[in-house]
Design brief:
The chain is mainly alpha-helical. It has helices spanning about 5, 15-60, 65-75, 80-105, 110-115, 120-145, 150-175, 190-225, 235-270, 280-300, 305-320, 320-350, 350-360, 365-395, 400-420, 430-450, 460-490, 505-530, 535, 540-550. Helix 2 crosses helix 7 (about 150-175), helix 14 runs parallel beside helix 16 and helix 15 runs antiparallel to helix 16. It is globular.
Length: about 550
Amino acid sequence: MSERKNTMFGGVAILAAGIAIVKLIGALFKIPLFNILGDAGSTDFYNAYSIYAVLLTIATAGLPVALSKTVSEANALGRPNQKQRVFRVALSAFLTVGILFFLIMWFGADQLAAAMNNTHAAPGIKALAPAVVCVGCLSAFRGYAQGHMNMTPTSVSQIIEAFCKLVLGLALAALIMNPAFPVAMEEERNSLAAAGAIVGVTAGTILALVYMVTNFVRTRARTACVSEDKPLPGGQILKNLLRIAIPITLSTSLVPLINVLDNALVQGRLQDALGMTEQASRALYGNYTVAISLYNLPSSFMTALTAAIIPAISAALVRGDRKGSAQITGSVLRITALLSIPMGVGLLALSGPIMRLLYPNYDVALTGPMLAILGPASVCVCLVLVCNAVLQAHGYVSLPIITTLLGGAAKLTANYLLVSVPEIHVFGAPVGTLLCYVVVLVLDLIALKYIVPEVGSYVRVFVKPAAAGVIMGAGAWAAYGLLERALICLGMTQDAGVQTLSRMGNAVAAFGAIGAAVIVYFALVLLTRAISKEDLLLMPKGEKIAKILHF
């Protein structure tokens, strides 16, 4: 058996590469976009996209999984007629839900924006409405392809979607923000530019759908065959699909729904409790959105890892190998900690320099502290994703829903109380986010301890990665401080006589500190043996990596 089949992550290596490309394009999109839009425009974009995310998740979270599973079963049983009817029923369901949500977003844009306490988000909501229909249909074609164990069309369509968003979205936003571009009212320029960026998102879904339809037609023509199998009635197929899809949709839609409520709550408290105008709250909240864009990056790279956990643990449980299941769980938690802690601690230790580097047009006195608070929260999010996958693999599908609800309640309560305090104001939002995921993580870890007691002590799992991360963070902070002083002495200041680094000086110091942090962390991981040979063997090329590191 090849090494790829022997490793836990070998089967998702290509998927991980595709996800990494899409996330990289997403980062390249949001960083310049938020600099183009400014703080108020970033809020308009973020609010519109948050509403879209909720409706999109409801429309597409569970059905693609159900479709993929059902098509795969029909394919394995040699029932092509059943397979085709399943696809038609699913496509009809996607189209129906997509059209319904299109109508809600298109004709209810003003009401949805008002509910978010930001009426300027309405153009963006309306611009996103067609994307709900397209992505619904996309999900049907992607689920069908995945049911045939063909992941390539999904990856290609996602890259097409992301690339179009990057090119067209940025171009339209920059065009509208140009003072020469005519607008009826100057104060509407930011919201129109946000809508222009969103047009790029919608256009990307259209092009991706064209590609998937073309691929489907070409593939079906090549694989068409005559069969006499009698497919189930459409109503029975729809019932079977919904039985699988509804629990997944409920659990997946909680986070975007909580985010929407949180967005509306924070902006509402800024306006009602602190007496801010809508314009002032938009500008203040826009600084939070750029911190959120960086906070989301570490967890976005955990998707492939969580996709690999469920089948690996399920296979061990089917064999009755609870010890093997516990070993996989412990290794995955340790690997997640090793990957997420340096990213989260780095955001904390270098929050100000990172913000000055990536978002120079924003108020670093606001964005820096918010990113510092969100850094540890990003570590918790990564671990929560993995814990939820482990719980689901053991059959506890509803437990992550309960812990997420409790965490969300803590977040909304904290934000309601903290944002209304004048000395705290918008800083209450990241504090609420941190509290939310600390609560969820603690509850998940307690549940895991009872469900998988063989995993052993959490101290053994987390203490070495945490210690290495803390030392790395202190080293990064110290390295930036030393480089800052040296560069100021060399004259790389903002202005003559001003003891503040220029943008170039800050970039040099920030990259230097990040480089030092990587070296320190890697050395500490090797010295403390924070990762074991068993952990490495679960990874692609793990045996070769273990030999290189002399494990």
